[in-house]
């Protein structure tokens, strides 16, 4: 029975836990299986072909766990591998770009949207293309902010260094009169307070995790796969490596204690 199968969620590492947090509040009764490729993170600085290869392996791992849908909780993977994933797996595949882009289009009033993400996401212009599909008149300004990933993983949410780096990255965007800024990387919601302070209170931040959780709910409903259970959903976490700081960082990203963490061997994921 499809309805009682878990939802599969994957990311290059732990950033996708910010999406699990949003999914768990939108769909509290759904079971979730998370895979974070912590042994091979970051994906954001890798070539498109490597990201596609890894993404297919990650999704296959989840399919072997019998999931009813796959949420690609990584903007980098969503920007380069979504079509490949949808072609290869016969379950709904939901990424970050389309939900985040639509949300931004709905919220902008002056038609000027900023997007921040990894180098791969920005170089692929995934958000610009998606936003212009919905409204070609909108101007989109993209900026890669690669140092935000290690800062979030260090838990440096409110340090002087984080402020300074945010100032440096966001100064151009601040001059461009944007009224909406897409957090186009699943690590960035951790730094939302600093980003908001630096970019200005009048700019609306878009968390793609919130937007995609809504899309997952609608999609499960559309295909009739939503659970009938009234019990609290169970969440299982699989990672390809457990770095020393994993637990603290995971808890920061998820916003609650993390149990049920399993390590899987990368060789087991990488087999055909
Ligand atoms: N969480 C990833 C994203 O949303 C960024 C980390 C990485 O570079 O792998 O793009």
Q: How are the secondary structure elements laid out?
A:
Elements: E1 7-11, H1 17-26, E2 32-36, H2 48-64, E3 69-72, H3 75-88, E4 93-94, H4 97-107, E5 112-117, H5 119-123, H6 126-134, E6 139-144, H7 148-153, H8 160-174, E7 180-184, H9 192-199, E8 204-207, H10 208-223, E9 235-239, H11 246-254, E10 261-263, H12 266-270
Parallel strand pairs: 1-2, 1-3, 2-9, 3-4, 5-6, 5-7, 7-8, 9-10
Helix pairs in contact: 1-10, 2-3, 4-6, 4-10, 8-9
This protein binds D-glutamic acid.
Give the mean pLDDT. Answer: 94
- CATH topology of the largest domain: the name is Rossmann fold
**Derived structural class:** alpha/beta
Q: How many domains, as an integer?
A: 2
> Reading side by side through the largest sheet, how are the strands ordered?
4-3-1-2-9-10
Number-wise, the strands total 10
Q: Give me the strand/helix succession.
A: EHEHEHEHEHHEHHEHEHEHEH
- Ligand roster: D-glutamic acid
For the biggest sheet, the summary is: 6 strands, parallel
Commentary on this structure:
- The protein is of the alpha/beta class and 272 residues long.
- It folds into 2 domains: 2-95 and 210-269, Rossmann fold (3-Layer(aba) Sandwich); 97-208, 3-Layer(aba) Sandwich (Rossmann fold), CATH 3.40.50.1860.
- The chain is 46% helix and 17% strand.
- The chain has 12 helices and 10 strands.
- The chain has helices at residues 17-26, 48-64, 75-88, 97-107, 119-123, 126-134, 148-153, 160-174, 192-199, 208-223, 246-254, 266-270; strands at residues 7-11, 32-36, 69-72, 93-94, 112-117, 139-144, 180-184, 204-207, 235-239, 261-263.
- It has a 6-stranded parallel sheet with strand order 4-3-1-2-9-10, sandwiched between helices. It has a 4-stranded parallel sheet with strand order 6-5-7-8, sandwiched between helices.
- The longest helix is centred in the N-terminal third of the chain and has 17 residues, at 48-64.
- The two termini are 26 Å apart.
- The structure holds D-glutamic acid (DGL).
């Amino acid at each position: 029975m499809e309805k009682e199968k878990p939802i599969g969620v994957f990311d290059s590492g732990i950033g996708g836990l910010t999406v699990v947090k949003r999914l768990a509040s939108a769909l509290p009764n759904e079971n979730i299986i998370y895979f974070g490729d912590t042994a091979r993170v970051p994906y954001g600085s890798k070539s498109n072909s490597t990201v596609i290869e890894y993404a297919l392996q990650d999704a296959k791992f989840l399919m072997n766990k019998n999931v009813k849908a796959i949420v690609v909780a990584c903007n980098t993977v969503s920007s380069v591998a979504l079509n490949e994933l949808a072609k290869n797996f016969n379950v709904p595949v939901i990424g970050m770009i389309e939900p985040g882009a639509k949300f931004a289009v709905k919220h902008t009033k002056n038609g000027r949207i900023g997007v921040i993400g990894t180098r791969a996401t920005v170089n692929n212009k995934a958000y610009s293309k998606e936003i212009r599909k919905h409204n070609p008149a909108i101007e989109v300004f993209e900026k890669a902010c690669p140092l935000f990933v290690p800062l979030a993983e260090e838990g440096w949410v409110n340090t002087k260094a984080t402020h300074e780096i945010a100032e440096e990255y966001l100064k151009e965007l601040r001059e461009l009169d944007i009224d909406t800024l897409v957090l186009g990387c699943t690590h960035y919601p951790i730094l939302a307070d600093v980003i908001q302070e630096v970019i200005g209170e009048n700019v609306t931040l878009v968390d793609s995790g919130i937007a995609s959780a809504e899309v997952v709910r609608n999609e499960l409903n559309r295909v009739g796969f939503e659970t009938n259970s009234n019990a609290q959903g169970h969440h299982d976490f699989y990672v390809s490596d457990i770095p020393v700081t994993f637990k603290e960082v995971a808890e920061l990203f998820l916003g609650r204690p993390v149990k049920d963490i399993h390590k899987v061997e990368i060789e087991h994921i990488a087999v055909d």
